[in-house]
Amino acid sequence: MEKILDIAEAIGHEKGLQPEKVMEALKTAFVQTAKRVIGQNFAFEAQIDEDTKNIKIVQTITVVADDDEKLQDEEVAPAYISLTEAREYDDQVELGDQLQIDHDLEDYGRTAASQLHREIEYHIQRLVEDEIYNKYKSKVGTLVSGRVTRVDAQNNTYIEVDEIRAVLPMKSRIKGEIFDVGDHIKAVVRRVNMDKENGMQIELSRTSPKFLEALLELEVPEIAEGSVIIEKAARIPGERAKIALLSTHPQVDAVGATVGVKGVRINAVSQELIGENIDCIEYTTIPELFVSRTMSPAIISHVEIVKNEEGENEKAIITLPADQKSKAIGKSGINIRLASMLTGMQIELLENDAVTTNEDGTVEEKKENVDALEALFS
């Protein structure tokens, strides 16, 4: 095989691959071809002569005595050669030496050439897929955009993103969204899978909180440069979202910067999310204060944090005026659900008039008090 190094460089340039990796793939292709046309059980190695830019197949075989039992064992015999036969190649060889025998695949005719072509094609394709897999595996949670190429009967949307085709499942679309072939859409990479049967599969999402975060980073320079950090985000796609923001610069207002003048920035993101309302909250490490902020627009009187046995915040008991209860719960329970998702805690609501303070200062709840969260989801 002539000028194999030039072939590796050409393939690498065409496919966008590193020549070194292409070379390893080619060497593997040569070895596999040798095994198929010369002997499956032989030990072969592909060696490159960088001066002549040729490749050769070398069979490594161990020299044993003429009466060695290994020569009679069909499974291991190909790895051994008798001393008498070995001296036909090298009259100086001794027992236990590793004899190397050169093979030229061109000597094996069209069968070898055809097999080599298939092997090279297969291993280069695997290399290309591995490169793309690693590239998009590192992009999980990041924003990509592409053109819709097909929408199937299950409303799964297939999108051409650079050199690959990704799928946006029906479950990962915002409610009410309809896409047509040719539409350009944005989404985040949710999952990248590789299996032998289906090859590489890239799944996108427009319902993940990561999609909201990526859109905000695209729209708000302060988030992109790091002076504002999105600590947490929670969404009920297409309806409402809450994001907790933290400023890393004393002169930057995290909420104000994200909302923008007259809400221009947050409205642009909301428009991409089919009118999804986005509540911006200033993040704090004080759990009581953070819980109180997540319950906006409801006005909260008191927050008590209940810890579990491991000392982690498990539940927040919120006391609030009776007229604020509906605001705290929100339409169809959306506000309290988002607050629970954002804080990672179960939330219980307690009306002010359902609490009395005893003479000793302890708080007593009336029996008719209702756990709002439990009532909503039971």
TrEMBL record:
<keyword id="KW-0804">Transcription</keyword>
<dbReference type="InterPro" id="IPR010213">
    <property type="entry name" value="TF_NusA"/>
</dbReference>
<feature type="domain" description="S1 motif">
    <location>
        <begin position="141"/>
        <end position="207"/>
    </location>
</feature>
<dbReference type="InterPro" id="IPR013735">
    <property type="entry name" value="TF_NusA_N"/>
</dbReference>
<keyword id="KW-0963">Cytoplasm</keyword>
<dbReference type="Pfam" id="PF08529">
    <property type="entry name" value="NusA_N"/>
</dbReference>
<keyword id="KW-0806">Transcription termination</keyword>
<keyword id="KW-0694">RNA-binding</keyword>
<keyword id="KW-0889">Transcription antitermination</keyword>
<dbReference type="Pfam" id="PF13184">
    <property type="entry name" value="KH_NusA_1st"/>
</dbReference>
<dbReference type="GO" id="GO:0003700">
    <property type="term" value="F:DNA-binding transcription factor activity"/>
</dbReference>
<comment type="function">
    <text>Participates in both transcription termination and antitermination.</text>
</comment>
<protein>
    <recommendedName>
        <fullName>Transcription termination/antitermination protein NusA</fullName>
    </recommendedName>
</protein>
<dbReference type="GO" id="GO:0006353">
    <property type="term" value="P:DNA-templated transcription termination"/>
</dbReference>
<keyword id="KW-0805">Transcription regulation</keyword>
<dbReference type="GO" id="GO:0005829">
    <property type="term" value="C:cytosol"/>
</dbReference>
<dbReference type="InterPro" id="IPR025249">
    <property type="entry name" value="TF_NusA_KH_1st"/>
</dbReference>
<dbReference type="InterPro" id="IPR015946">
    <property type="entry name" value="KH_dom-like_a/b"/>
</dbReference>
<dbReference type="InterPro" id="IPR003029">
    <property type="entry name" value="S1_domain"/>
</dbReference>
<comment type="similarity">
    <text>Belongs to the NusA family.</text>
</comment>
<comment type="subunit">
    <text>Monomer. Binds directly to the core enzyme of the DNA-dependent RNA polymerase and to nascent RNA.</text>
</comment>
<dbReference type="InterPro" id="IPR012340">
    <property type="entry name" value="NA-bd_OB-fold"/>
</dbReference>
<dbReference type="GO" id="GO:0031564">
    <property type="term" value="P:transcription antitermination"/>
</dbReference>
<dbReference type="GO" id="GO:0003723">
    <property type="term" value="F:RNA binding"/>
</dbReference>
<dbReference type="Pfam" id="PF26594">
    <property type="entry name" value="KH_NusA_2nd"/>
</dbReference>
<dbReference type="InterPro" id="IPR030842">
    <property type="entry name" value="TF_NusA_bacterial"/>
</dbReference>
<dbReference type="InterPro" id="IPR036555">
    <property type="entry name" value="NusA_N_sf"/>
</dbReference>
<dbReference type="InterPro" id="IPR009019">
    <property type="entry name" value="KH_sf_prok-type"/>
</dbReference>
<dbReference type="InterPro" id="IPR058582">
    <property type="entry name" value="KH_NusA_2nd"/>
</dbReference>
